[in-house]
Amino acid sequence: MKALYLAAGLILATATASSATETFTNASSTNSLNVVPVAAQVDLNDCLSTESSSRAIRACSKTIRAAQPNDDVRAHLYTRRALHRMALGRYDDAASDFTRAGELKDDDGLELLGHGFTAMMQNDLSKARRKFEDCNNRGKIAPIAEYGLGLTYQMAGETLEARDAYQRALALRPGWTAVAEQMATLEMP
């Protein structure tokens, strides 16, 4: 099941990585942000890595403190740290980071999505469903919310509901291979 989460989490994280990298790279050439030391660039690279480890979590923490980037970038970094924490089974810490990210972006969609995946990883499927349903009509994250909803139904053995959620995810994001592959694993009655 962790592989399923990581597929969705990596989609979310990939969207955040380019913004953080661009902002930190540009920080050294502008006076609007504190200059990011070269060591912070190494930490940023470790934070944006797809390899989850304690080192990646520490790197995210250092990067958050290294400069005073705008709130969007900080939210992306908190999201990345949350994903690393989830991959390592640190669900309460991940939920806390998703909350911080949501507060910084002034958008609770990201927070709801993160809390949905956190609850799913803790096998609290009813809580996960509520979180996904609360954010499934919010633009860019709607397909991920539908995918998460499908995963919770599949985990509970509710294949018809899972298929419907996966189809909604595909309608919102046509050609999404991970969802199509997951839908193919359903054993229909």
Briefly summarize what is shown.
This is Tetratricopeptide repeat protein. Helix content is 75%, strand content 0%. The chain has helices at 2-27, 38-47, 54-66, 71-87, 91-105, 108-121, 125-135, 142-155, 159-172, 177-184.
The radius of gyration is 17 Å
What's the end-to-end separation, in Å?
Answer: 22 Å
- How many domains comprise the coordinates? 1
Element-by-element helix/strand order: HHHHHHHHHH
Q: What's the story with the biggest beta sheet?
A: none
Q: Are there runs of 5+ residues with pLDDT below 50, and where?
A: 1-36
What does this structure look like?
The chain has 189 residues and is mostly helical. The protein has a single domain, classed as Tetratricopeptide repeat domain (Serine Threonine Protein Phosphatase 5, Tetratricopeptide repeat), CATH 1.25.40.10. It is built from 10 helices and no strands. The two termini are 22 Å apart.
Please specify the SSE layout and strand pairing.
Layout: H1 2-27, H2 38-47, H3 54-66, H4 71-87, H5 91-105, H6 108-121, H7 125-135, H8 142-155, H9 159-172, H10 177-184
Supply the key terms.
mainly alpha; Serine Threonine Protein Phosphatase 5, Tetratricopeptide repeat; elongated
